[in-house]
């Protein structure tokens, strides 16, 4: 976790926390895979974030007597100290995401597995295993040897008060409310439809349901892979369209 916090770039961890990966996933019913082990990120127990003194010191800060590490926000000459509201926002986002990871760990790995991208707490790859076994999509997955749908989530600075950006990485899916680049057409992923009460688990479950409702199928034709740039452009366009027409089917000329 120390590596994770250092890579975030704004915080320095004084005392490394340790944790052990948890569990392995058994292959789902009808899956062509024999299963594998999935590493879950270990989490610190309630870090404390504070502003560092305006000096350029490479020495770590001493830990607290209660066993929790102190996360210092380094400052340097000529660089403005972060405003209290900015620090508070960082605390809220980090605390919420670490709680979400802990809660997801308790689910086991039959439904989904979370992996941090480059040890970055604010970007996740999520492997979604739980798809309706009576659906054509599940049948497609069995026939093509695909065990899970891989999603990418990035969390903005004002999360959980703004939604994460979620897109499909693989496999390439036709329909199922999955659009160009892997963008996802779901109202709850938009600023208008989002609520800070939504959890990542709830969002992923809703996505799994929308795949089936929208008759999603694995694309078996050779096409270019999904891309983040295309997904962001597509999502921006669909939000603009739905803001104009609401969440109803817009004219075909509007996409």
From TrEMBL:
It is an enzyme of class 2 (transferase). Probable E2 ubiquitin-protein ligase that catalyzes the covalent attachment of ubiquitin to target proteins. May facilitate the monoubiquitination and degradation of MTOR and CCNE1 through interaction with FBXW7. Residues 92-248 form the UBC core domain. Keywords: ATP-binding, Nucleotide-binding, Transferase, Ubl conjugation pathway. Residues 1-70 are annotated as: Disordered. Its EC number is 2.3.2.23. This is Ubiquitin-conjugating enzyme E2Q-like protein 1. Interacts with FBXW7. SMART domains: UBCc (SM00212). One of its GO terms (molecular function) is ATP binding.
């Amino acid at each position: 976790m120390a590596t994770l916090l250092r890579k975030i770039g704004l915080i320095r961890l004084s005392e490394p926390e340790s944790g052990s990966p948890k569990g392995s996933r058994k292959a789902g019913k009808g899956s062509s895979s024999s299963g594998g082990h999935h590493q879950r990120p270990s989490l610190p127990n309630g870090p404390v974030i504070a502003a560092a003194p305006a000096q350029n010191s490479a020495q770590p800060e001493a830990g607290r007597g209660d066993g929790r590490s102190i996360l210092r926000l380094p400052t340097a000459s000529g660089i403005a100290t972060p405003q209290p509201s900015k620090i508070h926002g960082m605390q809220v986002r980090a605390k919420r995401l670490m709680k979400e990871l802990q809660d997801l760990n308790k689910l086991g790995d039959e439904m989904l597995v979370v992996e941090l991208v480059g040890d970055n707490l604010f970007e996740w790859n999520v492997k979604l295993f739980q798809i309706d076994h009576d659906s054509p999509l599940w049948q497609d997955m069995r026939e093509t040897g695909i065990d899970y749908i891989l999603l990418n989530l990035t969390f903005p600075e004002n999360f959980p008060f703004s939604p994460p950006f979620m897109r499909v990485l693989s496999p390439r899916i036709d329909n199922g409310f999955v659009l160009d680049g892997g963008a996802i057409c779901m109202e709850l992923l938009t600023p208008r439809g989002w609520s800070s009460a939504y959890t990542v688990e709830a969002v992923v479950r809703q996505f799994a349901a929308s795949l089936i409702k929208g008759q999603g199928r694995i694309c078996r034709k050779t096409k270019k892979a999904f891309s983040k740039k295309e997904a962001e452009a597509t999502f921006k366009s669909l939000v603009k369209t739905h803001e104009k027409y609401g969440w109803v089917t817009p004219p075909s000329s509007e996409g």
